[in-house]
Write a structure and sequence with these properties.
This protein is 22% helix and 40% strand. It is an alpha+beta fold and 165 residues long. This is DNA mismatch repair protein MutT.
Length: 165
């Protein structure tokens, strides 16, 4: 049996008005591909802390979580099994700052425009399409589905629930 890695990932749909933020990646396995701000959960890190950290590192923004579209399990283009936790959020602070070499561009886009993007433009197209479909259909779940301990404080920042996108 092939023992490739299991990779834990968080990703976040950040909403402003009626648009969602997409980033264009410059990683060796995803050059020029659009994706939601996302990244690996570090060893010992809690899921919501990882999501806040990745958003801040990749965009410079601070966010307030609204909901989750769920957990996705798929095989990546590199052959790893990925378990991805996807959240929705709205801006709560910070300013756009694309300092990472891995992110070369970003844009605010309406969900119907995201749904119409060509497969070759998207990273891990299957999961991006599934998340987009869930967002369009309103298949959202409360953050409270995560253990209450995760909701009290994350990295010194208070995690609050908000149902308005």
């Amino acid at each position: 049996m092939d023992q490739r890695g299991i990779v834990l990932v968080v990703s976040v749909s950040i909403f402003k008005d009626e648009e969602v933020l997409m980033i264009k990646e410059n990683k060796p396995t995803a050059i020029g591909k659009w994706n939601f701000p996302s990244g690996h959960i570090e060893y010992g890190e809690d899921i919501l802390s990882a999501a806040l950290r990745e958003v801040k590192e990749e965009t410079g923004y601070e966010v307030k979580f609204i909901s989750t579209t769920g957990v996705y399990n798929f095989q990546s283009s590199t052959g790893d099994q990925v378990i991805l936790f996807h959240f929705t959020a709205k801006l709560s602070g910070g300013s756009l700052n694309l300092t990472e070499e891995e992110i070369i561009d970003c844009k605010w886009i309406k969900l119907n425009e995201l749904a119409e993007m060509e497969d070759k433009e998207l990273r891990e197209v299957g999961v991006v399409r599934q998340i987009t479909n869930n967002l369009q259909r309103g298949n959202l779940f409360p953050i409270s589905m995560f253990h209450d301990q995760l909701l009290s404080t994350v990295g010194g920042a208070s995690i609050t629930k908000d149902s308005n996108i």
